[in-house]
Write a sequence for this structure.
């Protein structure tokens, strides 16, 4: 997208320019507000004229997002935002396309379009608001809800093993996979920037608190006392350190990560895994995506993987150009007269 | 030896053999040559559902029927005059539709025990009296092809694959066809393999010469060229015409065409054809499923392309929700449905007209959209263009119906001059000028606004919208008004379309009403009835929703109304509802087009009773 | 102080406030108490689309309307007599539907500057003459609740959450309701939190006592109990009745119920209710989408369970293909559609009747299936049972229509005795006995064969099947016959259903025809017209496809036919098509049920002209 | 399923007992024949009465499979076999449910149901016939076709990055993931046995040759000369050795596998990775699933992962039983009379 900026007048927009005239209608206290603010604050930095942004969503509380953005937008149907976005981006690769979805919208009904857009690698940015619940339909378990979760549709506890959204994305050839938290504004803004910077489909999962139906789902990651032990900030090239006094770290035993204490004297920072976003093989990212399966482990937050490959739309445009170069701009006269033609007199 | 030459007005030939016997190719060559010799014609390919069923089986028989003539040809022929049967199964499957005193050419070599058993013949039909009523020519096609190629020392498989050209050559001779176009075609098609070129041309000529030399055939035939309107022609299938029509509309609208599609029989060829047209700026996208196909097409329309999606019935069943979204967001979109036998998976390779109700009613909520149907293979071009015209002018999704018969069938297409085709003026809103995303123009269409246009940023969505602003609105009055606005916008298109075509007088005893691919069969039968002095006319309805304004009057000007359909009476039901007119139904759901004779006898029955 | 007591025949009350104000709960308590006091009643909850919109906003207003009476109550009331408005927005949104001289009880404390601004009031309506036509009672509900709870030293939030009980107490007093059932309910509901029990009961009583003590209210009211048929009753919503009806049918058929569903407003509560009934052997499966929901239900039916799928319009649009598969495979399946405002996402929390055409026609191919609609909340029980009866008897998918109004609305349900409910005999084929998978019984149903049964192994699928054997068949004649067999099997169900209900004489000047949830409003207006001596009758059609045999005759026995619908005329179109009868339409697509008065004035208009 | 066998009379069936009376209608030479034969040969060994088998398929050449099996069967609609199967298995956990699908049916239109059945872990067996093409619709590229593939719908070459079906399955929490080849009858039978033995969703990908539209797609893995260099047979607990003379092996460099020569003297068998199907973390299986991205690497054939977890239907049945135990067998009288009930006299 950066070419876009240079092609146009330099734009100097502010967060306010990206706020539409519509009242924001999430529940007071909903984590969605913070994500909206982070996006509105980040976009002006990207140097893209406002009219080139398109926000596309499905259905859900989170999917109301486009209405609040003073950009082009489509609030589509449940689960299909990624499919609509594929058409938008293919039709006009010059647009900066952002997909906003929920854990239900993106991974339940929309799971197939999700994995397919990722493998095709359209240069679009997916932000999935994961509140581990269906908000808009008033509180059923979602594909990311934990086993045993009691909700309206699982009065005796859910028996579905949840997806790890990042694992699904990686299994589907995800080139950019990142995680952030609604409450962590700065980090979130950075992740939005990074999503944008990646050429190809970027997938950003944001842990989002639903105050009404799943309040506190991520409190371990956001509350002051528990956060240091539960959040592992990833930085490219940096060892995996966490804890209130950076006293803990992650080492690898075979393929299995292990939490070690840096105070015990057995391990030093030099023994720890060093994060590498750029590994061609997604193995390391996959390990990260599954790390928090075990309560002893922290949740890795940040960019798991950032490895570009050619985008779908560039392949498409190349084929069009090659065809035009080879056969000339399409000519109806020629097309009509292909094959065996005869004259009746 | 000199033979008689008889001049025929028309003839119908069916080529039939194993899926691997190349019958589609043989039939197509015969068709193209006849077309180039000036005949009018119509074709009906008939594939098995299996890709390549085991040789010799009944269900593996592949057929290609072609009806050529020196007069206007409306159908691929009720029965055929000539059957070329490459094996016993092909004979068995097709014999019942061979006309009285018809000619049968069989590949005698294939009538061995194994094949006879496969076909369920206890005794060879060539030996008993099964075929006494016909003129049978037993030709050792395999053997003779082998002889013709003997010195080439080709693998047996290659020789075997050439035998269809022998058969074609013989039929070329029989109907006084010119071999040159096919020889040219062979040279081009197999240009990378000189041996194959040689083998196929030799086989073709051997077959032709067999006709010249042998005593078996007493007569040969000629079919003079038809008096088609002056102009350039090509033979075209419905699917190809459809693809070309869609591209033409995009070009005439100054839009890029975006096709979101998922393969499905019998629609896939449109995807294939459009995929080739990248130099026309056509972006074809093979989606993961039909929902993604239509959704991507709507996304592309939002982004300013002409969004198209092509499919068949099961695909439309999946697209319903997204089509409703296009209705709500008022974006142009053409949904092409090549109907096939239903319900469910049904008869995927067979033709049917059973998706009309679905096209009109098949979405939740009040989701009106224009529905148009093509009526002949070449008409798919015009129907596609018309569908696009309406979609972009009225900012609406349009459903365009065709069917398996039109899709694969072919006829001569009078090639239009691209300049003579009208422009489809599309204007994107470039500046506000007091307009809003849901402002209305004189035909109640909202403006089309391309993302990327400064100062026109806006959001659309599937929740009810306030008129003008397009913002979400839960206001009861607004909802009511919008429901009726969307409906009247579409219904008013009735003022902007051609009147329905009436053939014959404007009043009379019987009106035969049809839509879609029954056009030819109805026309032929009505023509026949009229030639006998019967007061019968034909009303063809191309725009199914809304219907042209003349339909009401025409319907009421006849004593009786007969509606032949390849379904259980869907148009009939709609006519009854719209016009409170009683209808007589003729319904055939055989996966096969109507025969004109079937409609003729129904006409007689109705007039009698 | 003694107050006048006036006896009313009926009264309609609307409770309105912020989403967080507990208005649904307050309304429900008033309803239940009234029901237990023997009133007939009907309710209409009215949620905002937002989960919890910011306090004080217009779009965040949540309402609950209840109509109670000592006579038969058909609707939740055209207008209300009493409006309880917890804030200015609630007043603003609801005022226009308050009847002449209506009572308004407002929480005066909420009429501050901020809230007035949110509601778009420049001047407080309590200060100017906005409300002169009404009897306004300004009550400092927040303040008084605070006082009542002062010594409990509760957090402000808790006090605030108790104020709805104050309002409820006051209304209880005004209409001479018994507080005990609500007190019991509070005790049970909050049993884990003694403080809340205390606070809520205190508030309730404080409200009640406020009525007793204050001079503000000159009169209180009584509504005698209604003369409902003898028996046990409970108040029930349509969705709960539906869930119970489905389980009852499964039990009476001796089958396990399998529910494949995906949450969607306003159908989710059926999923919630059925999920609780695990001890009934109900297997509820929250699928990944609607396609998986219906597919899993069909799979369960194949395996010998009663397969059910529940959804709303957009979900049905997605299920079309799989429903067609159930038609082809002739498996029992009930598809419940709780209709909501369309098209597309439409108005998800509002009611509408616009999916009738889709139910009947919304699949590709000829895919006929029975369509039934419930007409009142408690009728959802009977309709669900009937749908299951037909599904298992005829081995067919059935679409059962309800709507948002029935789903969330409630009325007293005369509790049947389980023993009095007929058995649904289901017999699985246990031995061949000459039967095949597509053999036919006396009603043309095929046998149901449970996997696991030895020697009856067989395969089903969506490709056309040979009758009897059920094997794949591409035979043209077989296809034709099967298409018509599937159709006639369903159409013959018309002989096995109750005649459509006629209220009034069997001939007359005007027949008002309805289906679904308009039942109450039509009945009330026809009753009124008849009481004025007008020759008007009401025909209610519960079975929409096929229709009962008496519909034809009844329709033709009236001079005029009026069809009120919450769509643009779908039933009207079908009646016209089926019976060639002219219809007058009354269409309201407001997301709100008809008011009886609207139909009454249409009746007058039609009779006049 | 093994309980089933013991509950019933011992069954002594043969392959023939599993052949239905329908003519098999695949193209002569199609790889589907071999898979059918392998299944028919393996089922009699499982000790399950024939009537307890249900074969469920979607649409495609491969999906014709159930018609040829003399068991219960459903030929369903395109992409949805897994969803139908979920209902069948939930309704009657006693049945042995087999899903037959293609690369298009299972991963294109059916991708969502595929990942969801795997995460839920119904005890069903999925066999995906991967011919890297759409057969039944006569030759369009599929989600497993390689980039650049020229087909009817990609006349200028496909621009879609393909999925690795095994990666997708692992990203979706796949507990049993295996690969086999149509031509390798013995191995295939073993994999079918193993699929069955796994409690929970088993996913078996079978490379299958479509003689008409994608002939030879797997010839490197099936032809005598090339096979040893291209196929790596996995055996639990055994080092990864391959090559015509077992002269090559796989070592791991960080997360990245490397092909080494055992003849060079630098590496011995003891240095090689030892295959472990039972690793709790799917990391190793993920590495295997992506190994053949690089032409230098062999295709790992065999069981990548076999790690059980509770099945969906057992959770469901447990909840039903617990509810019955707690509240008693459902009673309509009680149900009808729940809540506030009053009497009118
Ligand atoms: C086809 C269809 N099915 C179901 C629904 C109902 N529905 C709306 S949003 C939603 C789930 C929302 O969950 P999620 O995506 O997690 O978003 P959240 O509300 O939690 O932000 C559902 C089931 C719908 N609108 N359309
Ligand atoms: C809803 C729907 N869309 C499309 C089709 C057409 N269709 C049938 S099979 C198939 C793909 C088959 O590919 P695959 O699953 O790989 O099976 P194969 O034939 O290669 O064994 C398609 C697109 C269909 N039957 N139904
Ligand atoms: S329901 Fe939950 S996710 Fe939805 S707006 Fe409210 S707090 Fe946010
Ligand atoms: S088309 Fe290919 S996959 Fe299908 S039956 Fe023929 S060879 Fe097999
Ligand atoms: Mg969510
Ligand atoms: Mg395939």
């Amino acid at each position: 997208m950066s070419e876009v900026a240079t092609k146009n007048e330099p734009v100097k927009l502010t967060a306010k320019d990206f706020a539409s005239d519509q009242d924001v209608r999430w529940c007071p206290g909903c984590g969605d507000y913070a994500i909206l603010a982070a996006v509105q604050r980040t976009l002006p930095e990207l140097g893209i004229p406002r009219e080139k942004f398109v926000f596309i969503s499905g259905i859900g509380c989170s999917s109301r997002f486009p209405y609040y953005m003073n950009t082009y937008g489509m609030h589509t149907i449940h689960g299909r935002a990624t499919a609509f976005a594929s058409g938008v981006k293919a039709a006009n690769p010059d647009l900066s396309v952002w997909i906003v979805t929920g854990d239900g919208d993106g991974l339940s009904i929309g799971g197939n379009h999700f994995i397919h857009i990722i493998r095709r690698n359209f240069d679009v940015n997916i932000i999935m608001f994961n509140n581990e619940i269906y908000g808009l339909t008033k509180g059923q378990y979602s594909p990311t809800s934990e086993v045993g979760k009691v909700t309206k549709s699982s009065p005796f506890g859910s028996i579905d093993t949840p997806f790890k959204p990042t694992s699904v994305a990686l299994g589907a050839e995800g080139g950019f996979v990142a995680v952030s938290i609604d409450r962590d504004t700065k980090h979130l803004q950075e992740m939005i920037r990074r999503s944008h910077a990646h050429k190809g489909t970027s997938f950003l999962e944001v842990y989002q608190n639903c105050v009404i139906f799943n309040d506190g789902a991520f409190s371990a990651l956001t509350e002051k006392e528990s956060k240091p032990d539960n959040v592992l900030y990833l930085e490219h090239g940096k060892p995996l350190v966490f804890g209130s006094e950076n006293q803990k770290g992650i080492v690898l035993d075979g393929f299995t990560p292990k939490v070690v204490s840096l105070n015990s004297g057995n391990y030093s920072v030099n023994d720890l895994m060093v994060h590498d976003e750029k590994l061609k093989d997604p193995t390391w990212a996959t390990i990260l995506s599954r790390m928090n399966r075990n309560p002893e482990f922290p949740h890795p937050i940040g960019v798991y993987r950032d490895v570009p490959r050619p985008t779908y739309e560039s392949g498409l445009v190349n084929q069009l150009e090659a065809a035009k170069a080879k056969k000339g701009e399409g000519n109806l006269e020629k097309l009509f007269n292909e094959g065996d033609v005869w004259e009746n007199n | 030896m000199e033979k008689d030459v008889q001049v025929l007005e028309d003839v119908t030939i069916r080529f039939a053999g194993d899926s691997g016997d190349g019958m589609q190719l043989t039939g197509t060559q015969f068709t193209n040559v006849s077309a180039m010799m000036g005949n009018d014609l119509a074709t009906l390919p008939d594939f098995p559902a299996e890709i390549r069923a085991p040789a010799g089986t009944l269900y593996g028989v592949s057929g290609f029927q072609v009806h050529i003539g020196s007069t206007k040809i409306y159908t691929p022929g009720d029965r055929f005059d000539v059957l070329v049967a490459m094996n016993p199964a092909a004979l068995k499957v097709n014999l019942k539709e061979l006309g009285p005193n018809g000619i049968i050419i069989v590949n005698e070599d294939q009538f061995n025990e194994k094949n006879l058993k496969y076909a369920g013949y206890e005794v060879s039909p060539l030996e008993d009296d099964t075929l006494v009523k016909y003129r049978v020519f037993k030709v050792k096609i395999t053997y003779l092809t082998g002889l013709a190629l003997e010195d080439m020392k080709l693998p047996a498989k290659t020789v075997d694959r050439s035998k269809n050209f022998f058969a074609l050559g013989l039929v070329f001779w029989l109907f006084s066809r010119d071999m040159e176009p096919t020889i040219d075609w062979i040279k081009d098609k197999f240009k990378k393999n000189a041996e194959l070129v040689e083998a196929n041309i030799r086989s073709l000529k051997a077959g032709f010469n067999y006709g010249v030399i042998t005593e078996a055939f007493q007569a040969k035939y000629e079919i003079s060229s038809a008096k088609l309107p002056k102009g350039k022609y090509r033979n075209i299938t419905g699917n190809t015409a459809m693809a070309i029509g869609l591209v033409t509309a995009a070009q005439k609208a100054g839009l890029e065409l975006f096709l979101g599609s998922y393969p499905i029989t019998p629609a896939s060829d449109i995807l294939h054809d459009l995929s080739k047209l990248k130099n026309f700026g056509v972006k074809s996208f093979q989606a993961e499923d039909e929902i993604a196909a239509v959704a991507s097409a709507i996304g592309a329309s939002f982004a300013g392309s002409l969004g198209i999606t092509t499919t068949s019935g099961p695909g439309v069943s999946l697209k319903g929700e997204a089509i409703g979204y296009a209705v709500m967001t008022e974006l142009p979109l053409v949904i092409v449905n090549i109907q096939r036998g239903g319900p469910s998976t049904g008869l995927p390779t067979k033709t049917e007209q059973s998706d009309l109700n679905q096209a009109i009613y098949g979405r939740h909520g009040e989701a009106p959209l224009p529905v148009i149907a093509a009526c002949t293979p070449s008409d798919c071009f015009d129907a596609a263009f018309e569908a696009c015209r309406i979609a972009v002018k009225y900012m609406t999704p349009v459903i365009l119906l065709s069917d398996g018969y039109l899709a694969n069938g072919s006829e001569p297409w009078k090639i239009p001059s691209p300049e003579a085709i009208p422009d489809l003026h599309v204007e994107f809103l470039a500046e506000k000028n007091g307009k809003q995303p849901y402002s209305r123009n004189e035909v109640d269409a909202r403006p089309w606004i391309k993302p990327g246009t400064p100062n026109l940023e806006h959001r659309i969505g599937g929740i009810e919208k306030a008129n003008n602003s397009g913002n979400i609105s839960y206001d009861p009055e607004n909802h009511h008004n919008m429901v009726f606005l969307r409906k009247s916008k579409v219904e008013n298109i009735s003022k902007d379309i051609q009147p329905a075509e009436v053939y014959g007088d404007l009043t009379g005893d019987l009106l035969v009403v049809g839509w879609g691919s029954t056009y030819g069969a109805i026309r032929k039968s009505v023509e026949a009835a009229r030639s006998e002095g019967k007061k019968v006319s034909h009303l063809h309805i191309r725009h199914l929703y809304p219907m042209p304004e003349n339909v009401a009057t025409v319907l009421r000007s006849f004593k009786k109304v007969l509606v032949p359909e390849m379904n259980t009476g869907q148009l009939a039901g709609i006519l009854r509802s719209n016009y409170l007119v009683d209808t007589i139904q003729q319904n055939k759901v055989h996966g096969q087009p109507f025969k004109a004779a079937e409609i003729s006898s129904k006409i007689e029955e109705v007039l009698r009773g």
